Amino acid sequence: MANNHGIVYMGNGKVEVQSIEFPKLAINNRKCEHGVIVKPIATNICGSDQHMVRGRTTAPIGMVLGHEITGEVIECGKDVEFIKKGDIVSVPFNVACGRCRNCKERHTDVCLHVNTERAGGAYGYVDMGGWIGGQAEYVMIPYADWNVLKFPDKDQALAKIRDLACLTDILPTGYHGCITAGVTTGSTVLISGAGPVGLAAAAAAFLLGAAVVIVADFNKARLEHARSFGCETINLGIHDSIADQIEHILGVPEVDCAVDCVGFEAKGHGNTEAPAIVLNQLMEVTRAAGAIGISGLYVTEDPGAKSESARLGTLSLKFGLGWAKSHSFFTGQTPVMKYNRGLMMAILHDRIQIAKAVNVEVISLMSAPEAYQAFDSGVAKKFVIDPHDMIQ
């Protein structure tokens, strides 16, 4: 049996590469003959991982991280019919059974069967069902016929693997934020946050036909990268109001729609934590009857929060403003399977260059701890781990 190594959470601010158990077709003493063993070709570091590593969740020490998995199938359970050994596949970060009411209604983000504690499952993530993470050399994927997306041509997939690696999470997540916000031909869009998901949302907005995409952040390097593929930008470190800066760009102080790609660790001026600030800002500058897509992560418990209410996931929203403007709000994790096939086709046929948009940098498994630190410092990169040195 092959060895296996993975990225393990070791407490606040620390991850390590450790020897871990080779995956079995089982979870919590239940057989998973519907599953496959995948050898990751690309397994990415996500901003959501950083919430755990910063100690902002109840993640246990010893958890194997990683929910953005693209790889080669090396073993199939006896109940797998349509996925074969040797297939190159994209794995949605959502673990879903394909059998429950929510899965059948395409709400794979809140599958009812893969987590005993709440609706919804994910690999290598706190409170999401105990599924082992995929920042590793090998990982088990359950309900494979339902969950994985097979790429139609192996050589084509390997040639575009940097882009296809973004199909597991950030591209569908950014796209979902735009879809739920109502981005369409000619839209003006404000995207809050220029991290990888924000940049993916910006690229998705252009794919959907937006006329103007504005990205807001404090991070100058990330804003510069957003401008490199056609975005307008707002530097939140400037004391001019966001509405004034939007008016300078558009001639009016509001946008048609907005996407929150920051989440609960949002900060205001002076680097002070203000978990509701992005949502309140977006309500202020989104037109009446507009919509706000919330791709940023919000948690039910934040042990690292500064206030008691925030520790319980309670935010000080200007909800009356949103109500008065007849805003629509769309929350929740992205049902990746709803979008990944269409986005795969857009990548394969050069309609979107997502690796360029999010500035993919390929790294080794052993260098992942340093990449976690670099990502946390705010570099304008999306780190893609190549555990087997397969990416050319």
TrEMBL record:
Pfam families: ADH_N, ADH_zinc_N. Residues 196-264 form the Alcohol dehydrogenase-like C-terminal domain. Keywords: Membrane, Metal-binding, NAD, Oxidoreductase, Transmembrane, Transmembrane helix, Zinc. This is Glutathione-independent formaldehyde dehydrogenase. The chain crosses the membrane at residues 197-218. InterPro entries: ADH-like_C, ADH-like_N, ADH_Zn_CS, GroES-like_sf, HCHO_DH_non_GSH, NAD(P)-bd_dom_sf. GO terms for molecular function: formaldehyde dehydrogenase (NAD+) activity; zinc ion binding. The gene is fdhA. Its cofactor is Zn(2+). Its EC number is 1.2.1.46. PROSITE patterns: ADH_ZINC (PS00059). It comes from Candidatus Nitrosacidococcus tergens. Residues 34-152 form the Alcohol dehydrogenase-like N-terminal domain. The keyword Oxidoreductase applies. It comes from the Bacteria.
